[in-house]
Structure formats: C-alpha cells, structure tokens
Design goal:
The chain is of the alpha/beta class. It has six helices and 17 strands. It has two domains: 135 residues, Rossmann fold (3-Layer(aba) Sandwich), CATH 3.40.50.1360; 72 residues, ACT domain (Alpha-Beta Plaits). A seven-stranded mixed β-sheet has the order 3-2-1-4-7-16-17. Helix 1 packs across helix 2. It is globular, with a radius of gyration of 18 Å. The two termini are 28 Å apart. The model has no long low-confidence stretch (mean pLDDT 93).
Length: 221
C-alpha cells in the first residue's frame, strides 16, 4: 500500500453512514472512492470534478449536483502545496472556483497530501491561478503589470488560444519570484475588478491528512 492509499483509507475512516461528502479530484481521491465503494455506505457525493463524478457514477454511488446542496458534512481534496497555517495552493485543474464553493459548504474541508506538498510556508513552486471574466482580461493584465507580477494566460495543447474555465472564464497563471504572505496575496489579487476567484485557499482548510513514509498524521486547525 502506497502513501496515497494509506491517506485514502484514513479518510474513509472519518466518513460516517448517511453523510453528504464532497470529493475533489486526483489520484488520492480515486483511491478514496474505492475505499468508500468497499464499505458500501449510504452516502451522497458532491464534486466539482467531472472526472470524479463519472467515476463515482460508474461505482454506483449517489452523485448530487453541487447546486442542489447547501452544506456538506465533510469534503476531501488534494492540493499542490499546503503550509503549517493551513493555507493551500491549488493550480492544476482550473476548477478552483467550484472547489472553493465546495470547501466553503463543508463543515470540515480536509486536504490529503504527502510530505512533498507540506511545508512551514508556501514555496509557490506552482502558479497562482486567477479565473477572470473575459471582458476584464486586458484590464487585469495591465493591473498585474503595475503590481510587477509575472503572468501568462493558460493554454491547452488541444487547441490554439485561451483555456477557459467551466463557466467560460479565462485562466491566468501568476508566478512569484519572492515570498508573499498567502492571505495578503489573496486579498490583493481578489481585489482586482473582474477576478472571479483565486486558487489560494486561505481560510477554508480545517484539516490535513499528511501521509508520511510510515504513517498518516491528521493535522487539525
């Protein structure tokens, strides 16, 4: 059993019969789905990830659309980086707005990570992603230049041009050359008119399942 599987098994032990559970995306979540399926619990699953939703349906789980639910008992997700202050950076999927809605709905929002993704402070080895209204794209780029940020619009190798979010918004990757406090950075970027959401999670995370080489630690806020 690898570290991600151990993490998923620990997460499964926290889930109780009849809960409404949010699931993000990634390999550890896929392992968690397998764990849930084996226990055959009477759960409702909510997810911002189309891939996760499809896998849950294939496993015979009850998947409920996000807009039909106003609160979750628990939500589990992965991330690119998380620090000791429970601030996290999620860059990969480009669905961070929906992930943040899911996180905000949850009584407990728990990230599952291995040691390589956990540090005392965020290292910003991944970009901060902005979801922005298309009409505000040029304005936001100019504002980012004024703030001396390095940035680029996100592209896809499957077509020429912008990669859009599920809601038709543009994704901009912002790169840091030096450390900035995550909460300060979030407030600064979110304050730019036209920014829908920022892929920094500075208040949502309530727990971290940290997979070490020989054990899983449950860190609580």
């Amino acid at each position: 059993m690898n570290s991600k599987q151990r993490c998923a098994r620990y997460a499964q032990s926290l889930i109780k019969e009849g809960m409404i559970v949010g699931l993000g995306g990634g390999q550890t979540i896929q392992y968690l789905i397998e764990e849930i399926k084996e226990k055959n619990r009477n759960l409702k699953i909510v997810t911002p990830s189309a891939k996760t939703a499809m896998l849950c349906v294939q496993k015979g789980m009850d998947v409920v659309p996000l807009q039909w639910i106003h609160s979750l008992d628990m939500a589990f997700d992965g991330c690119d980086e998380v620090d000791a202050q429970f601030c996290a950076l999620k860059s990969g999927g480009g669905i961070h707005t929906l992930e943040k809605i899911t996180a905000s709905m949850a009584k407990e929002y728990i990230l599952m990570v291995d040691e390589t993704k956990y540090a005392q402070t965020l290292k910003y080895t991944h970009p901060i992603v902005l979801e922005v209204l298309p009409e505000a794209y040029s304005f936001i780029c100019e504002r980012l230049k004024e703030l001396n940020f390095i940035f680029a619009y996100r592209q896809t190798n499957k077509k020429d041009g912008f990669l859009f979010s599920e809601h038709g918004n543009v994704l901009i990757d912002v790169y840091l050359s030096s450390y900035i406090d995550p909460k300060t950075l979030y407030d600064l970027l979110k304050s730019i008119t036209g920014v829908v959401e920022v892929s920094l999670f500075v208040k949502e995370v309530t727990g971290i399942l940290l997979a070490r080489e020989d054990r899983v630690e449950f860190l609580r806020k």
